């Protein structure tokens, strides 16, 4: 690039010597230069390297809350330069004073900027790309970005669970209702989250589940994650069995992260749980043991809801096991990850499901227990055997987690596998 500049400079000097004295030629030259610039001829004279392909990529769904140095929370959005050649470095400029952190990664052909905002608004961002060696600026990229800051509920106000009609049950109907666009997702503490809780309660009531050791279906708790303020609690109901000293606890979380419809994660799991409830009801026989059903809140906040539940639940039964459902029935029919380890407290339970999955041709693979992250961990922490059905290959925590990504027949396969286990249980 330096060589080309030298040649250009040399040619310019020769032209200047010959023509510049003539006024007509000077005017003509100026016009020619203006026209060539307009049509980009001047650009072609200098070879364009990969700087021409660079563009800004905005991460679509990052509206997380972050803490600044003063401990105040703000929403953040990350953008990065795409196709950045290793020859270049990036300086960031922002028209907005609220830009708090600039983090180009050292030695990597990537440059990331995270913009923190106190309230919803726009900010003009400029990425100034310059040559590492010469320091010459080769490109400037501008984008206006918008950061949405979600209001957090105040900790003082009691969160009221709205009454929602259950309607006719089907897996598809449950997923459709939980993913209603106008409800705005089910992030804990939001209206959409409360509506979801009310809707699940309505189904518990319709199916004839009893509240467990409480006046109603809500198991509220005080220790919420700071990001969600005072959210509603877990939704819990149960079916009485012949032996009420033992229980199978079927669980699925109903909350989501921000800005996702959450069809796969985890309307699918809630629908499977309700499918088990209705199928057992239809069967009309008293189960061997109590069957407890929990729809957990705040799974996405490090299992706060299930941890609070297990803390109260652990003394209620002599023996219990947990079957947790989180992300099932994806259309790609990916493997279910079963956290099988030989000497684990859950080894027998997992072996039982391996054989049920084999006979029903449900694809699965054994997976390190520690890498499966969901509410069953709260049971594991208290020494209660547990299993989690979670399917690999599906998209979660993104705007792409839409209703069309899940298949109700595949979800029904999972609930049927659970029914088989529940009917034959030798707890
Ligand atoms: Zn989940």
Structural topology:
Blueprint: H1 2-19, H2 23-39, H3 41-45, E1 55-58, E2 65-67, E3 73-82, E4 88-94, E5 101-104, E6 111-117, E7 121-131, E8 137-147, H4 171-178, H5 191-206, E9 218-219, E10 234-239, E11 243-253, H6 263-283, E12 289-296, H7 304-313, E13 319-325, E14 336-338, H8 347-359, E15 364-366, H9 376-380, E16 386-389, H10 408-423
Parallel strand pairs: 11-12, 11-13, 13-16, 14-15
Antiparallel strand pairs: 1-3, 2-3, 3-6, 4-7, 5-6, 7-8, 9-10, 10-12
The chain binds zinc ion.
Low-confidence stretches: 1-8, 39-48, 60-73, 97-103
Distance between the termini: 75 Å
* CATH topology assignment of the largest domain: Aminopeptidase
- Helicity, in percent? 25-40%
CATH first level of the largest domain? Alpha Beta
Bound molecules: zinc ion
Name given to the CATH architecture of the largest domain: 3-Layer(aba) Sandwich
From the alpha carbons, calculate the radius of gyration and give it in angstroms: 30 Å
Description:
The chain is 30% helix and 24% strand. The chain has 427 residues and is α/β, with parallel strands linked by helices. It has 3 domains: 2-47, no CATH class; 52-147, Immunoglobulin-like (Sandwich), CATH 2.60.40.10; 171-423, Zn peptidases (Aminopeptidase, 3-Layer(aba) Sandwich), CATH 3.40.630.10. The strands form 4 sheets. The protein has a 6-stranded mixed β-sheet with strand order 9-10-12-11-13-16, sandwiched between helices. Strands 1, 2, 3, 5 and 6 form a 5-stranded antiparallel β-sheet that branches. The chain has a 3-stranded antiparallel β-sheet with strand order 4-7-8, with no helix packed on it. The relative contact order is 0.10. The structure holds zinc ion. Zinc ion (ZN) binds at residues 253, 265-266, 299, 326-327, 374.
């Amino acid at each position: 690039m330096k060589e080309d500049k030298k040649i250009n400079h040399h040619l310019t000097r020769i032209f200047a010597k010959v023509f510049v004295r003539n006024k007509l030629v000077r005017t003509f030259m100026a016009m020619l230069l203006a026209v060539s610039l307009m049509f980009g001829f001047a650009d072609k004279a200098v070879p364009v390297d990969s700087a021409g392909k660079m563009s800004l990529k905005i991460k679509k769904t990052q509206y997380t809350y972050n803490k600044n140095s003063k401990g105040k929370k703000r929403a953040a959005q990350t953008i990065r330069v795409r196709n950045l050649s290793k020859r270049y470095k990036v300086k960031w400029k922002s028209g907005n004073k609220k830009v708090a952190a600039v983090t180009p990664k050292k030695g990597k052909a990537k440059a990331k900027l995270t913009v923190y905002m106190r309230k919803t608004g726009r900010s003009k961002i400029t990425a100034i790309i310059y040559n590492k060696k010469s320091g010459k600026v080769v490109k400037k990229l501008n984008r206006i970005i918008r950061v949405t800051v979600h209001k957090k509920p105040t900790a003082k106000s009691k969160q009221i669970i709205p009454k929602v009609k259950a309607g006719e049950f089907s897996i598809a109907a449950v997923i459709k209702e939980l993913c209603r666009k106008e409800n705005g997702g089910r992030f804990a503490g939001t209206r959409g989250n409360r509506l979801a809780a009310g809707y699940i309660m309505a189904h518990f009531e319709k199916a004839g589940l009893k509240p467990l050791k409480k006046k109603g279906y809500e198991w509220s708790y005080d220790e919420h994650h700071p990001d969600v303020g005072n959210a509603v609690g877990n939704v819990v109901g149960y079916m009485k069995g012949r032996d009420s000293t033992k229980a199978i606890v079927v669980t699925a979380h109903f909350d989501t992260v921000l800005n996702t419809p959450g069809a796969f994660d985890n309307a699918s799991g809630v629908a499977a749980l309700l499918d088990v409830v209705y199928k057992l009801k239809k069967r009309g026989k008293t189960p061997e043991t109590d069957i407890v059903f929990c729809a957990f809140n705040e799974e996405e906040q490090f299992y706060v809801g299930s941890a609070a539940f297990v803390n109260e639940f652990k003394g209620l039964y002599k023996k219990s096991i947990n079957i947790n459902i989180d992300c099932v029935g994806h259309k790609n029919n990916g493997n279910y990850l079963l956290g099988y380890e030989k000497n684990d407290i859950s080894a027998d339970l997992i072996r039982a499901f391996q054989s049920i999955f084999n006979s029903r041709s449900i694809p699965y693979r054994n997976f390190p227990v520690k890498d499966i992250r969901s509410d069953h961990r709260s049971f594991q922490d208290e020494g209660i055997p547990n299993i989690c059905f979670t399917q690999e290959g599906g998209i979660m925590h993104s705007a792409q987690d839409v209703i069309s990504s899940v298949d109700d027949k595949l979800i029904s396969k999972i609930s049927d596998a659970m029914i088989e286990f529940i009917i034959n249980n030798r707890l």
